[in-house]
Write a structure and sequence with these properties.
By secondary structure, the protein is of the alpha/beta class. Helices cover about 35% and strands about 20% of the residues. Helix 4 packs parallel to helix 5 and helix 10 crosses helix 11. About 55% of the residues are buried. It has 13 helices and 19 strands.
């Protein structure tokens, strides 16, 4: 397999870039106590706390105090006047997708030192944008980056990866038993989740590429292996994946209201993209067009699809009980701009700002099976804490101004209010 050659190369290069991204952040000292003062805290579940002290010891939150207690210790970080909330969770981000030396789209299969440097940079700017956990659905290059960050060798978000996706090709995909074997192979390779392409790209029409029987086998085997499933699905494939008991639908464009109601009834999560991914493609059209999968016809199709994505989100938020998570599908050109998706969802999709925050906090954590670890500011959970210069409930564009980032008790960013301009682009 090609991936067996990729991983040692990337591991070697990641070792070289380790020192470049350690900055001043270090692993929290055993038992070290940090007190954060906050005037406004969004708890990640839809609640708002006021005049609060968040007490962190090591990598976890140990207490939420509404008033200073005797012996509580001095405030280490004064975040009063900012909006404090859990670090965001991006359920769909291709963290190792880069542009090549020629400036053109190189995808996520690069094996050079430059590719590794870019992937490490992608992780850094994503973390600086307030995203402390990402689900990167499908690239062998994700594994060494995931592991280097987990070991503290590099600064970046916590990464969950699918390693190698199951690409639907009709009968060529294989019989159910062959598909089950593929799923088991991904678990052995270190996958955290199984990614399934049940549709063509929307640039190619989005037609279904797997039968109901094939989808049933893939999602059933994943459950037996203790893994979740993410299904790239448009049109009829949305219903098929829901009936197959798959965990989460990615994109979902052209799903019907009945499809959305079925998802709600089955408890299937929806991760729609309201704008960032297509906006990024259009912004970087010259860097993508002519590379594999990107044609003039495909770009014309994306321009037509963008309002359909808005319409899907508008219908999704009106579907009672539907679990909507936050995912951006970031590729080259979009890393560090993940929060733009919030703005698209609120402005164009009609999503309530608090619901948008929850989708990237407790709802996202629940979808990842990590609700007892991340996504909420509360005792016993990981100290993934960010602060925004502004109030996203009143002005959603405040999500661009992340001035404080803590992940697992380590502070990676702490800049002055007003340090980030009204439009920030990629976060510093």
């Amino acid at each position: 397999m090609r991936s067996s050659k990729i991983i040692p190369c990337i591991l070697g290069v990641l070792g070289v870039v380790t020192l470049a991204q350690r900055v001043s952040a270090q692993a929290p000292a055993q038992g070290k106590r940090i007190v954060i003062a906050a005037s406004t805290v969004l708890d990640g579940k839809g609640g708002v706390l006021h005049d609060t002290r968040i007490v962190v010891e090591g990598s976890k939150i140990v207490a939420i105090e509404t008033r200073a207690k005797p012996g509580a210790g001095p405030v280490g970080y004064d975040l009063r006047g900012l909006t404090v909330l859990p670090g965001w969770i991006d359920a769909h981000a291709h963290i190792t997708w880069n542009f090549g030396k020629d400036g053109k789209n190189a995808g996520m299969g690069g094996t050079s030192q430059e590719d590794a440097y870019q992937s490490a940079s992608n992780a850094w700017v994503t973390l600086m944008a307030g995203v402390t956990t990402v689900q990167s659905p499908g690239a062998a290059n994700d594994i060494p980056l995931r592991d280097a960050i987990a070991k503290g060798m590099l600064a970046g978000p916590r990464i969950l990866t699918a390693v190698e996706p199951l690409f639907g090709q009709g009968e060529k995909t294989g019989k159910p038993e062959e598909i089950r074997a593929f799923v088991r192979k991904q678990k052995e390779a270190g996958a955290d989740v199984i990614k399934i392409f049940a549709s063509q790209s929307i640039r190619q029409g989005g037609e279904t590429t797997l039968s109901q029987e094939q989808l049933n086998a893939a999602c059933d085997e994943a459950k037996k292996q203790g893994l979740r499933t993410l299904v790239h699905a448009y049109k009829d494939a949305v219903r098929a994946a829901t009936l197959a008991g798959c965990t989460e639908i990615e994109h979902g464009t052209l799903a019907t209201d009945d499809d959305l109601k079925l998802m709600a009834a089955k408890g299937t999560y929806l991760d729609p993209q309201a704008g960032l991914i297509i906006e990024n493609y259009l912004l970087h059209k010259e860097q993508y067009i002519g590379t594999p999968g990107y044609t003039a016809e495909g770009f014309a199709a994306m321009e037509k699809i963008l309002p359909m994505n808005h319409e899907l989100v508008q219908h999704a938020v009106k579907t009672p009980g539907l679990k909507i998570v936050f995912g951006t599908d970031t590729v080259a050109g979009a890393h560090g701009r993940n929060a733009e998706e919030f703005i698209d969802r609120v402005r164009d999709g009609g999503v309530d700002p608090m619901a948008a925050m929850v989708s990237a906090n407790s709802m996202g954590a629940e979808a990842l099976g990590m609700g007892d670890q991340i996504g909420t500011i509360g005792p016993g959970l990981q100290a993934d804490i960010i602060a925004i210069d502004g109030d996203p409930l009143k002005d959603i564009t405040a999500v661009r101004r992340v001035v404080f980032v803590m992940k697992s008790g380590v502070v990676y960013k702490n800049v002055a209010r007003g340090a980030i301009p009204v439009y920030a682009g990629v976060q510093p």
